[in-house]
Amino acid sequence: MNIYRIAGLLSLYLLSSIISCKTTTYVINITAGDTTTQKLTLQQTDGSSADTIKVHEDDKVLWRIKTETVHKITDIDDKISMAQPTFITERKPHKRFFSRTWVEKVNRVVKAQFKDSGYVKEFYFIKWKPNGPDSAKTYDPLMQIYPRGY
Questions:
Q1: Taking the CB of the first residue and of the last residue of the chain, which one, N or C, has fewer CB atoms within 10 A?
Q2: Could you say which residues form the signal peptide (predicted)?
């Protein structure tokens, strides 16, 4: 093999590695909050429901308040009642400084956790405060984490 062929194959390998490692940012818009049911209306940017969102390892998830019925998010965290911890992230979701947006980066998952379904269910809650005198409410959406390259 000559040096040019080796360099070409190496370049092709590196390019395919870069393309397969591309991360995606998922934006979840909070478009309404119901104080009676405690339900938030979560939508992806295309308008589809984000009550259950499908993401991959290394992806980023943003929650953005896009309604006047929700004053703020006070916490996004694991559902403590679950048998195993579910937030498989660098750190727990957190509020961006001087913003109404919360952010999370999904980490790599131990392959054994994917089991038969091919994904890990991440059970979490969003604690939110409506506008007005009502107390904080809690909503329980779901995130499905798929392996990179799925």
A1: N
A2: 1-21
